[in-house]
Structures are given as structure tokens and as C-alpha cells.
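[Solved] Which block belongs to which protein?

Original post:
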Amino acid sequence: MTTTFTDETRERARDIIARYPADRSRSALLPLLHLVQAEEGYVSPAGVAFCAEVLGLNKAQVGAVATFYTMYKRKPTGDFLVSVCTNTMCNVLGGQEVYDTLAEHLGVGHDETTADGTITLEHAECLAACDYGPVMTVNYDFFDGVDASTAVGVVDELRAGGRPMPTRGARLCTLKEMAVQLAGFADERDGAVADGGPGEPTLRGLRLAQQHGVSVPGFDPNTPIRSKAEADKAAAEAKAKAEAAKPAPVEASAAPVKGGDGASAPTGAAGVAGPAKPAETTEPAKPEAASGSTTRDVKAPDDKSPQVRTAETRQPDASTAVPDAPGTKVPTDGTGTAPAAGDARSAEAAGVAANAPAGDGKPAGDEAGAQERNLTEAKAGTDADGAGPADANETGAQK
């Protein structure tokens, strides 16, 4: 078992962590688990410790994630992971027969590896390809519409050193090479993605859309996808343009006002209409003047959240209800008059007083006195007339 990971793996780990914000580095855990699986062929205890080390987590946190997803293998896995779908649709179409044939042919069961270390067989609950069933995958590349004989042919070619071509997708690679891609790194093999193609059921929807002229309005497939730097630059330019388009604030004119005879007159002189002076207003008392506090006065937001508005509208308290919230109205007492303020609180207090809280050992309303009384009456009835337990229970229920 490898206990020290290579420098290349550590460099790639740093590249993966750098994809995420500094305070969100834990999000890099999933690709990091694929990365350690790419080196060892499975997520070993050393791989768990490595991920915990580079992310500043404990091993229990990493192990909880590694054991949740089936794509992370917890024991050594073969070069080619053969997964056969045995869920409902593929099973009806023969998926279970394909799996049973491969298990017998390879001499292994679920999640077991052949003696030569080439193939690990597993049955999958669903491979999300019902329209191609029955299906199996080799290192997550699809082989569609398989039967027992074609499946055996695929695994025999793999064991002989060949690379059968999947029905859809690029040419096959080993599980370790696939784990590198799942960690977010490109397949560096020459022409690795040049092969393969879409399946007929996949193309069926496209052909129907072309036949009936269905398309996304304004969609241009040649539209380039901007990088984050380009998007930030465009946003900054748009903000600057919006700021520049704002009208300049209007300032009061300092030019002298002409009098009736053409002579200059000071603004506000008798008989001359000068600019109106703003009305004097009384400034509100400052916080420190009212309460002695020096805390800055923060203005409350103008708009309330929808949840707050809905709650205030639905409560029967006219002093805080908001009648203009859509789909709600202030409750009334039947005469069109809203209840007086405080009615809701009074009703709530009365309800609390009438319903004592439950004790630690029994549910609300289940008082010990009532239980003892029923038991006493049942026993008394049995002693008096010799009634059995059933009669006593019936008597207690009637009382």
C-alpha cells in the first residue's frame, strides 16, 4: 500500500484546491478523492489521511464522504470496472441474465476482482440509460443493448489486452486514467476524444426538433463562453457607463436677480421674487441626546421580507397587520371591524394557561392522577363482581 503520494499528485492537489475560494476549500474533497484513487486504484486509508491533511479536515470527515459515494472504491480494484445495470428496465430486458453470465464466466461476484487484476465486476442499480437497455459500462463508458454473448466478448477482449470501442463516448482507458479525468484533468492520450459518437435515441429528439422547427429563441451556438476575468471586466465597464449616464446634480444659481428697473437687487430683497428659502424643520433628537447612547443611528430597511409581511398580515392584530400584502387580508370579527390590538396575545396566553406543558416522562394531557384513578376503578370492579380484565377495561373506557 502506498503511504507517500508522488510530487505530481501533490501538485495536482494544489491545483484542485486553487479552483475554490479560500474559505470554501472543503469543496475540493470530491475531486481530491478521485485524485488519490488515480494513484492507488482505490481510496486507501493513506488516501483518506492525505485528503484530510491538505484540506485541514479530520479523517472521519473525509471517510464519511468516501464511504457515501459508490464511485470511490474502498479496496483495490481492477484496471477495468465492469458495471451491469440490474435495475427494473434493464432487468426486464435481460440485464440480470447478462450479470449472471459474466459472474459465472469470470468466476467472481459483485465487487470482486479477477485473479489477474484485470476486471472488477459489479451490478449497478441504475446507469441512467433506460432507452439503451440493457446496458453495461466499462470504467463508466457505455456499451448499449448488450446481451450475454456480447458482454462476454467485451470482457474477453479486455483480458486479452484489447480496448473494445464503447457504443458512446471516447476510447476506453484504465480506471486510474479515468479517475484523473474525474478529478478535473484532461485526457492527455493522443486522439483520446476523437472516437465515439451519440446514440440513435439521443439523436431522435434533435431530429424531431429540426423536423418541426423547434429551437431556443436567440440561441447562438457560436457564442463564446467568457472567463471570470472577462465577465468581471464587462461588469465594471457597465457599472462605469451607468454612473456616467446619471444626470449631474442641479446647483442653485449664484447670478444676481434683476430688479424691476433693471438694477441688480440682492436675492430676497423687498418686492423682488427671489428663490424660495427652504422651510425650517426641527431636527430629530440625536440618540445621545435622548438616551445618552453614542451608537450610530441605523435606518431600518424600507421593504420587509415577504415572510415578515405575510406573518404580520395573517395575525389578528390590527396594529401590526399589513392589509396590502397580496393574497391576504386582515381578519375581522364578522362586523367588518378588525380586532383590537392585543387580542391575539390574550388568546395565546389563555391557551397556554389551559394546556399545561408535558412532563419529561409522558405526553401532554396524560396525567398520573387519571391513570391511577382508572386502575383503581378497574380493580374495584373486578373485586366486586369478578369481572375479567376485558370487562374491567370496558368499564374503564365507559367511565
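(Second protein starts here: sequence line, then its C-alpha cells.)
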Amino acid sequence: MLNTGTPDTSTLGKGTITRERIAAVEPRIRPYVRHTPVMRVDMADFGRPAFPVDLKLECLQHSGSFKARGAFTNLLERQVPEAGVVAASGGNHGAAVAYAAMKLGHKATIFVPEVSPPAKLERIRGYGAELVVGGARYAEALAASEDFAARTGALQIHAFNQEETLIGQGTLGLEIEADLPRMDTLLVAVGGGGLIGGIAAWFAGRIRIVAIEPEGAPTLYRAFEAGKPVDAPAEGIAADSLAPKRVGEMMFPIAEAFVERSILVSDDDIVAAQKALWDRARIIAEPGGAAAFAAVLSGRYAPAPGERVAVLVCGSNANPANFWP
């Protein structure tokens, strides 16, 4: 879906999620996060017409996803009480918060829904956090985490609708620009929108940013249609990482201003992308992590001649043995 709205962008630069704050946070979290690599691939190797695509492999980040950036930003920029931190997550945010808490010496309690895959639960447990599994979807885990925070005084770290989370994810935009200064277009998967919101705040319209979402969880697509965040379905193969009820209120004005459009991909597209990344490039990507590449592989995003395209592969908490029946 094309973003045809005409938002008032005059106040965006005056807000709290700015290039200046992202640049200031980056050196604070740098000792704790990896500068992840870029791999250039030729789409001819994937059975598509020949053209180069740069893959930013944030799937190689600590805890298996980009979310370590937002987690460390929260723990370093906010006061952590004795009760520690609490987070609700489909898996990746919880793993990132658990990892950051472990590295910085804080207690962590993570609430996850029943759809969370075993690989993500094992990561959270492995980082020493207390894990609570319950509820069918992310919204129920979030409600339980909010109740826990109210009862214990633990610091709640929201997966996407939190200032520090957006700023931390924005450091990935800074890093991508350093890696690929001549990039024209960046494809980014969307769930709650913390990742694309932070990245879009960094670039602030200087490149084309395209959102990629599963057909079963079109949160930003529906928000663009309505002109505001609204509830959307929360289904499909990527439901554990890309299926909150709606995008965050904090990121939506940024997306209206700086995200060109949202493209939907099917579950079959995502599975094909996972398989292709593993088979042709030996890259392990979970469904949400492979969604952006699925848009290129399926042809749902077709680059113009000479367009310099980058794709963010943002999560790797999957077992490649599960890619095939």
C-alpha cells in the first residue's frame, strides 16, 4: 500500500526520537552490540533476474536479532530499580532484554505468549531470565507484564512503543548508512514498528524506506489506510515476531512522514525466502527476519534499473532443520 497521507512533519525534528539522540546513544551501546556485516548477493543466484542486493545481516546480532540495540539503550538510559526489568515479547525482544540484563547485572522477568517458538524460549532461559509463558498472543503477555510491573516496581521495557527502544533501533540506521552510503532503498520488516520507526527517524527522508509485512499481520498497512494505528489481524507464520495488535503510537508519525509504502507478503513467500537464504547463502533467518527478502524474491518489490537496494535480515532465531517437511 502506498502511503498517500500528508502528515505535518514540522514537529518531527523537535521530538525526542531524533538523529541527534540516536547519534548520542550509539557510542553508549557500542561496547555491547556487534557491527553486523553486509553481504552482496546477485538475485540471479536465487532464480530472479540478475541485479545486486545488499543484505544487512543484523540476524548475527547478540541474542539473534536487532532488538539488542533497543534493550541496551533502555537499560543504559533509564534507571533500573532493584526489582529489575520486565518485558513482554513474542521471543526476540525478551531474549534481547534478558541478554542485556545479564550483561549489565540486572534481574529480568520475561512474559511470552504460547505461540513463541522453542528456540526463542531457550535463548531467554539461557540468559538467566525468569520466563513466564501464557496467553495466546502478544497482547495477553503484555497485559501480564504490565500487571507484574505494577505489583513489583520492575522497569517495563516495551518492545516497540518506547522512546528508548526506538532510539536504540535507530542506531541500526546509522550503521547501515555507514556501511552503504550510496543506498537508494531499504526494505524493512514491520511488526510493532519499533525497528522501521527508529531507522526512518535516522534517515529522515534521505533514502526510500519500504515496509514489508505478512498478509496475516498487516499492522502498518492498516494504519496507513486508517490514518492512525488500528487493530489488525495477528496471524501467520511470523506471528511470534511480526504480529502485535497494532503499530506503536510513537512510530506512526515517523512512518507517515518517512516510509514510502507497505508491501504485503504471503506465508509461502516468507517460507521460500527462508529456504533460499539458507540454501543459496547459508543464512539462517526466522520468518520475521526473512520477510523483507521475501518481497524481493517473490517479485512483490521490483527494483528499477540501476536502483541500489538493501534488505534488512533482522532475526535468526530459527532452526534450519524446520525449513523443510
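Accepted answer:
You had them paired correctly. Confirming on the second one: The two ends are 33 Å apart (CA to CA).
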